[in-house]
Amino acid sequence: MLALAQGLTRAGHEVAFATAADFCPHIERTGFEAFPAGLALAHQMEEARRRYPEQDGLVAMERFEQFVPRMLGGVAAPARAADLVPLVRSWKPELLVHDETEFAGPIAAAVAGIPWADQSVGILRPRAMARLAGETLAPLAERYGVDVGPFGGMYRYLYIDVAPPSLQSAEIAEIDVAHQVQNATMDPGAEGEALPDWVRQLPPDRPVVYVSLGTVFNAKARDVFAAVLEGLRSEPVTAILTIGTDNDPDDFGAQPDHVHIERFIPQSLLLPYCDAVVNQGGTAILPILAHGLPLLILPQGANQFHNAEACVAAGVGRRLLPGEVTPEAVRGGVGALLHDPGLRDAARRVQRELAEMPGPERGVELLERLAAERRPLVRSTIE
């Protein structure tokens, strides 16, 4: 959401975020005001497992499609709404933008009598998930005396679609308030950090492979990182692994000079130096593809299995499911990224698609229109 928020600020609007208290410092480092609201992710997942124990038997996409909507609508939304409803009343925004995993936003907006917009996080999630979340959310909406529709508030006024056509679900055609706005090309340094000096001094004769498992699932992925390290240690590449703040680079032992392990490096600054990426398949796939880089996706949870499937179908990468991640498989997958011209050509095709999509300034225009007109922005009426 950062690219859109920055665009709104440039246009003279006041912007603030509401999120779990432990994430507020990350928001504040980007220069925006942040209000604490709702549960931390770990507490949210713990409570959801307690409340929906039957979901423990589900894995991969089945777990994502059935457990996640119940967690978001039944656990996350009520806790966040308790903080968000009075916050919206006191801060008095003219418009609320929520991401598509967040269902308290529409409740709070409806209570305040203001319109809301859905910020997509990538490829459209199956609409059946939004319907299940809506069913789970219904008692909360009734408690607050509002009606946010059958999809938990989704697709009511405006759906900001950030996915390029080659990756997007065919279901997007059913959402008449969907409008393309790409957010994959943020300003360098937007993450509030600097690039380590050694990156600019990498040897030019070795392709650079960047490895990251995101910011949520990396804490329990030590074995995955270890397999990647073993697979790439003897390869003629420069391997850069970012393992997250919950892991310690020293735990992986001494590494050869061409292997670098860091807790964090700003992706927006690092990608221009890279030739290929090993990634978990979260929202980061869009900025990676905006640089024309092919992907080896190691999905760990959430929407990553859907994203991996879409990337394979679009020809921009390879996928290794959790039981398939071995040093040999990683070595073969990275080799394909570096030497299969079809993968790179497909990644560059998606790069062109993203470059042709309207940027955050289009999102600002849509939000300004929604705030002024306070009615659904149906594609056929404004394009």
Automatic annotation (TrEMBL):
Residues 246-368 form the Erythromycin biosynthesis protein CIII-like C-terminal domain. Residues 8-214 form the Erythromycin biosynthesis protein CIII-like N-terminal domain. InterPro entries: EryCIII-like_C, EryCIII-like_N, Glycosyltransferase_28, UDP_glucos_trans. It comes from the Bacteria. One of its GO terms (biological process) is antibiotic biosynthetic process. Keywords: Glycosyltransferase, Transferase. CDD domains: GT1_Gtf-like. One of its GO terms (molecular function) is hexosyltransferase activity. Belongs to the glycosyltransferase 28 family. This is Glycosyltransferase. It comes from uncultured Acidimicrobiales bacterium.
